[in-house]
UniProtKB/TrEMBL annotation:
Cofactor: FMN
Family (UniProt): Belongs to the flavoredoxin family.
Domain Flavin reductase like as annotated: residue spans: 87-244
Database matches in InterPro entries: Flavin_Rdtase-like_dom, Split_barrel_FMN-bd
SUPFAM superfamilies for the chain: FMN-binding split barrel
Any GO molecular function: FMN binding
Protein name (database record): Flavin reductase like domain-containing protein
Length: 300
């Protein structure tokens, strides 16, 4: 199954009559505040293992066995691997990537959930595109041509507009028009526009590119990894916390990507301080005590 066939199948796998399905659901809840709660087990102690929520995941959580899956097993398709992985590796942050052709005649705006911050000095962001360099999609085509982009973080306030840009429009059609979002051409280090509605945007220069050999179709390329160096940041002034360094989630309101056509919002938060090995665990002596406790439990 080639890339275009995979994408076609993905589109067909969505709800056949989505508006009817959506109409049956409760409306968006504006009253749900961002709030902090305790962790599931505030009295958790070192060596205790999983908390009680582990058993609530399903009625058979305690006895269910793990299934061994060979990603290249006989009869297993690339599509099945895709569906499994995007449903398991979740939630994922979304890079809303703006690019522009070298001559400025074509602009593209597209969401990408194969995205992550991977270094701070210099700021490096990973973007992955499930198409080969030889058959580059619009974003990749412009990124390879100019070496520039703007990564915009997606918030609740324009989630529908963001999703609209994922349509399979031909090259040269501006997703800015499709989405109704506002391009701002004031970037300091790149020519692409940033999204005005985005609380946080990152100007970026292409640092390196790597493409991958397909295991399902040997001799062909299946996707690529782009590392982008952040060269300038834009943060909305009302989003800063009192420290004027980090951003407030209650203003950022980030949207994440889950499996299929599902997205997530963040409303319930917990905090977990990172433990100190000597102070909190008691150092090596403390670890030895945990080992003794574990052996004693096994012997019972």
């Amino acid at each position: 199954m080639n890339q275009r066939d995979v994408e076609s199948k993905l589109r067909r796998s969505q709800h056949g009559d989505f508006k009817t399905v959506e109409a049956s659901r409760p409306p968006w809840d504006d009253s749900t505040p961002f709030h902090y709660t305790q962790t599931p087990s505030p009295d958790w102690a070192f060596g205790s293992g999983a908390n009680y929520v582990h058993a609530l995941a399903s009625t058979s959580a305690a006895t269910a066995k793990h299934i061994s899956i060979d990603p290249y097993g006989s009869g297993r398709s690339r599509y099945e691997n895709y569906k499994l992985l995007v449903s398991a590796v979740a939630p994922r942050p979304i890079a809303f990537v703006s690019t522009r052709s070298r001559d400025g005649t074509s602009e593209n705006l597209a969401p990408m959930s194969f995205f992550q911050l991977v270094n701070v000095d210099p700021p490096i962001f990973a973007l992955a595109i499930t198409s080969p360099l030889s058959d580059a999609k619009d974003t990749l085509r412009n990124l390879l041509d100019t070496g520039e982009c703007v990564i915009n973080i997606v918030s609740e306030g324009f989630v529908e507009a963001m999703n609209a840009t994922s349509t399979n429009a031909p090259y040269g059609v501006s997703e800015w028009e499709i989405s109704g979002l506002t391009p701002v051409y004031d970037c300091k280090t790149v020519s692409a526009a940033r999204v005005k509605e985005s609380v946080f945007s990152i100007e970026g220069k292409l640092e390196s590119v790597r493409d991958f050999q397909s295991r399902h179709n040997p001799g062909t390329r299946s996707g690529s990894l782009e590392l982008v160096e952040g060269t300038h940041f834009w943060a909305r002034e009302d989003a800063f916390k009192n420290d004027r360094i980090s951003l407030d989630l209650t203003v950022l309101r980030p949207i994440s990507r889950l499996g299929g056509i599902t997205f997530g919002r963040t409303t319930q938060l917990i905090e977990l301080p990172r433990p100190d090995f000597d102070r909190d665990l008691g150092g090596v002596e403390g670890v030895e005590k945990l080992k003794d406790q574990r052996r004693a439990r096994r012997e019972v």
